[in-house]
Target: Formate-dependent nitrite reductase, nrfC protein
Amino acid sequence: MEDAVSENIERRRFLKCLGASSLIIAPLGCSSIEEESDANKPHYVMVFDQNKCTGCGECKDACNVTNNLPDGKSRMIMEQQSGGVAGETCPHCGKKNCDCERKYVRVSCQQCKNAPCVTVCPTGAAHRDEKTGIVTMDASKCAGCKYCIGACPYDARFINKETDVADNCDFCLNTKLSKGELPACVQQCRYDALIFGDANDPTSYVSKLLRVKDSVRIKPGFGTEPSLRYIPIVKLGV
Model:
């Protein structure tokens, strides 16, 4: 029960970041000097298309099984939001508090290029994988100090109580990517709402997608440079 309450609090904190004031259009072409210098290295990103997600939760289930996570903990969560305005009549159905404008958002580690969790870790347990650049954990070095959890501005890290090690979404680095497979959530999604690949490869699908689609990042003003991009709901005219 305590785990569930804690998880709900973390989700609510994260979702505050998804307000209109914190979503800023951030096309992939806007590169920093550091990104340009690392152009020859892979930059793995994940794109979540809010227009395609149905909130089925199969991606979360696949992640939990693949990464052997304990009950009550997940590396990613699908959170339902409502696009309607409280107290106002829905223009689609004429009712109040309906689900006509419901939408879903992926809540997980943002895989920041400038990751605070890596910076504050005193043992080097939270680190960037040398080959892929993905933020991950070295379980043998984790002291359980929770510094990385406190430093994460997205409240997307937790202590795995079965291993006593801090945990985060690392794009299934050791369970799928190392085998040449896509992350479990991407494989499981039946609606193509999740896209994964190397953004530094101009021929990759994810790179081409981000060149033609406007995407947003959570609180880019923090300077963390998240690698998780969101394609927000597009409201079509009548």
User: Anything to note?
Assistant: The two ends are 46 Å apart (CA to CA).
